[in-house]
Structure formats: C-alpha cells, structure tokens
Amino acid sequence: MSGPADVERMIEALLFAAAEPLDAADLAARLPHGADIEAGLQALSARYAGAGVELACVAGRWRFQTAADLAFLMTREREEPRRLSRAAQETLAIIAYHQPVTRADIESVRGVQASRGTLDTLLELGMVRMRGRRRSPGRPVTYGTTDAFLEHYGLAGLADLPGAGEMRAAGLLDLDFPADFAAPDPTRALEDEDPLEDDDAPRFHQDFLETEDGAPRGS
User: Fold this and answer.
1) Which of 39, 47, 65, 73 has its CA 20 to 30 A from that of 14?
2) What is the pLDDT of residues 177-199, one digit of tens each?
3) Which CATH architecture best describes the domain 4-74?
C-alpha cells in the first residue's frame, strides 16, 4: 500500500487535474485500495495554508482555489458574473434560510407577489432547484438551494450559512428578517414533503411564449 506521502501527492495531482471539485468517493475510486484519503487531505490543507493557492472544501467536495486575498489579481481575466436583481437576491436569501419553501412562503416573507421570472432566473442559473411537493392543499412545489449556490458563496454546507448581518454585508440580504432568523438544518427529516414526479421539471419562460389557445407563438 502507498505511504502517506504518496497518497498526498496522488490527491494533489488529481485535484489539480480535475475539471470540477472532487469528493472523497471520487478520490477513493482513483487511489489505491486502503489509501487514507482524510489524512492526505488534511496534510495537503496544512501544506497549502497561506499559499497563493489553497485547498478548500465546498459543498462536500475538494478543490484548489486562489487565496481570497489575491482575488484582485484575477479580476481582469475572469468573466463578469451575471448580476442578480434585488428581487432575485431577496428570493434567494429567503430560499436559503427557509428551505424547503414554496412560492407562497416567499411571497409571505417578502410581502409582494413572487415573479415567475425571478424564480426562473434562479433555476436557470442553477442556484435553486425544485425539491418536492408539500403535503398540503394543492401540493405546492417546494424550492431549495443547490451545490452551485454553496460553491458560489464558498460554503461547505448549509450549516455554514452566515448570520443575517454577514449576509447583508455581502449584498445577499437586504430584508429586515426577524431576530430568530436562522439557517436551516440540512439533516432535518422532511415529513411533509413528497419527491417530485417525472413531469415536475421546471418550464422556465415557456408560459410566456404561448398564445391564449395554448399553441406556441409563431406556429
């Protein structure tokens, strides 16, 4: 079996070459049987601490990324991200902290009707997903955040969501939520939620492209 130093080097090589973050299962599938992956990751994390490139765990997966204090060096080489509207930011914050949440829940917190386009934008960006259907009259669809949301904000998991003050400083939260506003427990059993069915996939803006008789415009 390979020694600790060899395992560390192999993990380092895999993470550098990977096109996307890898979790422990991905690494185990490529490393020799019995390799101590956790020890290798800890050794790599310690070795790269404070370096220009650091090892980070995001959404349960590992990747090398530029140190936060050196991000300014990359600003001219990185594509400008799509900016979210205020409504989208507020909706995303509500979903993140209240998930699983329905459209009616979002409207209740924001105090205004939720725009279909706002949710569509978050779904298209991959920041939000349709989770299931609540066991209540009408069986409304519930929404939750995705791994892409965690990766975008550099969170290892939902339990690492910052407090309301930090979210407001980061520009994600502008609402005056109650004092007991807290991050959801991702391990909580959802007894009032059923899985989505095959025909529950999001349709995005198709509803706006149909005529009154239901036929696509231009047909």
Assistant:
1) 73
2) 545 545 455 445 455 677 777 66
3) Orthogonal Bundle (1.10)
CA dist 175 and 94 (Å) reads 9
Give, in order, the Cα–Cα distances in Å from 23 to each of 14, 59, 61, 214: 11, 9, 4, 45
- What are the distances in angstroms from CA 145 to CA 8, 151, 161, 173, 217? 32, 11, 12, 15, 33
**Cβ distance 145 to 128 under 8 Å?**
yes
The domain ranges of the chain are 4-74, 86-206
Distances (CA, A) of 174 to 55, 100, 125, 189: 31, 21, 21, 29
Pairwise CA distance, residues 161 & 95, whole Å? 12
Beta carbons of 51 and 81 less than 8 angstroms apart: no
> pTM above the 0.85 mark?
no
For residue 146, give Cα distances in angstroms to 38, 58, 61, 92, 183.
25, 12, 13, 11, 15
Structure tokens at 43: 């050794």
Class of domain 86-206: mainly alpha
